[in-house]
Amino acid sequence: MNWKQVECKGKKVWALLNDAGELRVENGLVPIRYSESQDAKMYKASLRNIVEIADAPHKTLKGTASAQKSKKKKTTGLGSAKTRTAEQAQRAQQVAQQMLDSFSEGTVICFTDGSCQRNPGPAGLGVWICLPDGTQKEHYRYLGEATNNIAELSAIEDAISLVAAEERYADAPVAILTDSKYTSGVLTKNWKAKANRPLIQKIKSLLKKNTNIRIHWVAGHAGIEGNEKADALANRAIAEGK
Questions:
Q1: Active-site residue identified among 152, 158, 220, 226
Q2: What global pTM score does this model have?
């Protein structure tokens, strides 16, 4: 695969080229990667955020993490919230920042989180939103007795409603970032859900009506600013609700 060094939001990245040696553009997006390493993950950046560099180097780089096939169980390499090392936390922050940098200009950013004391137990949700004009909004809600998965899903549901209320950004792309692999899986990867099916179907229906919304996973409790704020809001909901 042939790649060319370009700038994306002030950072040098590698952009994928087509057979003609030009940037490969699909639906206004260009595949990019931040590293030359073989296991580098591939993202997609808006073409308008790409600035070509005069006499930029071209390279044939080996496959990306998204393209590699393996019989081994896929892992993020970022550890888990309870056992994550400082090095993994730093890497998780870098991955999250790379993801944020890949979003097109004017994207509404939503971090969501659910929290539960015991499972099931007193539960709450938190949503932290950053609008394209820099305005930040906070939302939290106490759910009473519920499971952690219900809290995570409900946070997504609330985020969708909150964004819909921002009429001036009705046509803006929306990125919802959750640290729940369960939530991301049942909503975007067709994981089979044994529980919470009515809530899941409700959220899926909302997503079908709001095709500008995308859900992304980020590592939780790794020092990622938006995730930490959403987590604090979810815990605040429990504290005040109790």
A1: 152
A2: 0.71
Within the chain, where are the H helices?
Answer: 86-102, 148-164, 181-188, 197-209, 225-241
CA 161 from chain centre, in angstroms, equals: 18
Q: CB count, 10 Å around CB of 115?
A: 26
Closest by Cα among 96, 4, 8, 3 to 51: 8
Q: Catalytic pick from 157, 185, 221, 228? A: 221
pLDDT at 64: 61
For residue 222, which of 43, 83, 99 has the smallest C-alpha distance? 83
How many Å apart are CA 180 and CA 239, to the nearest integer? Answer: 21
Q: Which of 124, 139, 226, 231 is catalytic?
A: 231
Work out the average pLDDT over 67-90.
71
Length of the chain: 242
For the question of residue 113 being annotated catalytic, the response is yes
55 a catalytic residue? no
* Active-site annotation holds for 114: yes
Catalytic residue among 124, 139, 179, 220: 179
Strand partners of residue 216: 177
Determine whether 26 is an active site residue.
Answer: no
pLDDT in tens, 167-189: 999 999 999 999 999 999 999 99
Active site residue 19: no
* Tally of CA atoms within 13 A in the half-sphere of 97 that contains its CB: 13
* CB of 187 closer than 8 Å to CB of 201: no
Q: Is 216 a catalytic residue?
A: no
Starting at the earlier edge strand, list the strands of the sheet with 136-146.
136-146, 121-130, 108-116, 174-178, 213-217
Which three-class secondary structure state does DSSP give residue 229? helix
Catalytic residue among 114, 124, 126, 226: 114
